Amino acid sequence: MSRDVILSGAPGARNRRIAIIGGGIAGMSAAWTLEKARRAGQPIEYSLYEAAGRLGGVINSEIVDGCVVEGGPDSFLTEKPAAAALCRELGIADQLLPSNDRERKTYIVVKNRLVPLPDGLMFMIPTKLLPTAFTRLFSWSTKLRMAREYLFPPEPGTEDESVADMTRRHFGQETVDRLVSPLLSGVYGGDASQLSVRAVLPRMVAMEQSHRSLTRAMLAARKTAAPPSPSGRKPGSPRSLFTTLRGGMKLMVDGVAAELAPGSVHLSTPVQALHHNSDDCPDPKPPDCRYTCGWCLETSFGVERFDGIILALPAWAAAGLLRRVDRLLSSLLSEIAYSSSITVTLGYNSADLRSLPPGFGYLVPPTEHRSMLACTFVHAKFAGRTPPDKGVLRCFLGGSGNDHLLDESDARLTSVVLKDLSEILGLDAKPTFVRIARSRHAMAQYGVGHIERIQAIRDNVAALPGFALAGNAYEGIGVPDCIRTGQQAAEAVLHSLKEQPAPATV
User: Are 416 and 371 a contacting pair, CB within 8 Å?
Assistant: First the structure.
């Protein structure tokens, strides 16, 4: 029987059954990809299992006093297309809202003072002489080190190293402390001395290999930038760095949920065990079972069998389910570290925030020895997410080594944040509301050797038919990355099932 006949639902062939474990945006993206395939005529069924009582994972939005409050990510990088493309598919493109980049200014806290990032600084690379020379962010010894990097660059690295190590070789320790550490802490909630430069900043590695000097490489890249677009935007001119949804990121979750097949989503249903092939199954197949091979999973409702499995879970949770299936794969996944985060969102009357400096907010270096990692001025970052008479500050705590903060009371966390805001911003007004969200072990950390580890994980996954992984543990931690991995996981399982013999009905 030809594959085309099988996939068109030939007589005697049953639908392939696929389970998605994990209802965050990666698992939902996988489910939506399968739903589109089902609508296109592929003979498949799918079930999504989520342990929590709602979908979306860390994405959660609410409206408080007319203000959009995000419990998880508040936006995504515009240059990564998967999230915006999904919104267009779901018919909510009119909700896409670019960041207000006319106000795009970021500060670093240095001895309780806000110091703006100098103009022309591309991550850790200075590209403009005068702003770098006159910034208060760096000492003169660091500024001289930056000049020396252009004239006498170090030898390129030959092996994977931490972001801190690479930065130190080029620009010195102060650049690590005051710039790279707070930037990466704000994005990854991680430690620059542990994060892999090849996984986190592959472009920097390529630039070093081609030019030795990162400054030379960045200047060369700017010279060869694309010409002006038909819209008139000049090369190097500000662009919308971030995009969000006007009514909250949860609109994306709600949009996908509304499109999935009725009865396909199982909330409050943790998967207790996963098994591959009949020998491992705790519930031996009867002689007339339709399933000649594949997977079965256990929940509180019993055992169900599937032809394909997509694990859209944190790596540590996936490792637990795979321990009996593939010990090596389980071990590799368990090596991926995670950090936790806490978001404290405070609402204010706009009159109380008149003294705030212009910009998106500030980052706090670890050397400042504060619990707060960053603060975003939400009302400035995205126009239209707060009423004209309101302002919202979004403060971040947690990160590597600070899991103990998760167990602090709401009152204690609020007190810590208000103290920091008073000492850094001089803000002593009482907030009109406070919302606190905790995300335990939710942010994957791409440690040194991550790329080699991921390749080993891929090799082991390839040996398991009808199986795929998705989520932020592998090739990007942002919302678009999770959406992309969910789509790729669904496509990989569909392709794998096409390669297997058609399952016959009894």
Answer: yes
